[in-house]
Amino acid sequence: MELRQVEHFLAVARTGSFTAAARETHIVQSALSASVRKLEAELGAPLFERTTRRVALTEAGRALLPVARRLAADVVAARGEVSAVVGLSRGRVSIGTIQTLTVVDLPREIGVFQRRHPGIQIHVRDGMVPELAAAIRDGELDLAYLAADGPLPGELTSYAQWSQRLVLVTYPGHRLEHRRRVRLAEIDDEPFVDFSGSVTQSMVRQRFAEAGLRHNPVCEATHVPLLIELVAMGLGVTIVPQSVAERARLPFARIEQVDFNRTIYLAGRVPEPTNPAARALLEHLAN
């Protein structure tokens, strides 16, 4: 059963004439008659009694009529729903972010976007890069801000990217608190508070190993505010984005002779999202 067959059946039932129904649906009468005959063949029963004077519904036709009307109404409603989504008067978009996102004021940007498109529901999720990347691949997220020590995995698409410097954060009373630049060798075997599961943790371990130095984690945290509090209490030093260190108001220093810059990507699955709300949010964030 095809939608056009249902529409042709309804037109004949409404007008009581194949000729009038053909005019209403803007097709030739022979094509409309063939469409109705095909529908009757598929259903296995005649839907109209045809005489030279009138066309009347059969019992099968009367049984089909309310169902056909509901189908037609549902199609109109579906077209309206899709039109609303495409027109951004309604919709949903999901975006993920790392905790240490500072290159964009995401809450502010989402607020601006929501005021422009109040009918769009926005779901924001934070997490570590591996789980966010998996959520993009699985279709759970439309977009996500990801950190990487190099290029993105090949199955993801980058829409925009930024470079972010990482710095050493110490605490009041630490031997390096007044330094603005340090060498990595100066924190060989230093008690360290790790940001567990993060790209930063991987970078720190790799840079220490490449320099032949000992990375000495004495504590781990999975949330940035807790990480900063642990450092402030003197449990150890850490390495975080410079903007995070500045907001924490703890002593920090740039690390010399070693590349401690990472890349932040605004990423998705495909070059252009199919979700209209995601396309609109991407355009807002990328510009």
Automatic annotation (TrEMBL):
GO function terms (MF aspect): DNA binding; DNA-binding transcription factor activity
Keyword annotations from UniProtKB, A to Z: DNA-binding, Transcription, Transcription regulation
Residue ranges constituting the HTH lysR-type domain according to the UniProt record: 1-58
Record-linked PROSITE patterns: HTH_LYSR
GO cellular component, one term: cytosol
Stored InterPro entries: HTH-type_LysR_regulators, LysR_HTH_N, LysR_subst-bd, WH-like_DNA-bd_sf, WH_DNA-bd_sf
Domain of life: Bacteria
Pfam families: HTH_1, LysR_substrate
Family: Belongs to the LysR transcriptional regulatory family.
Protein name: DNA-binding transcriptional LysR family regulator
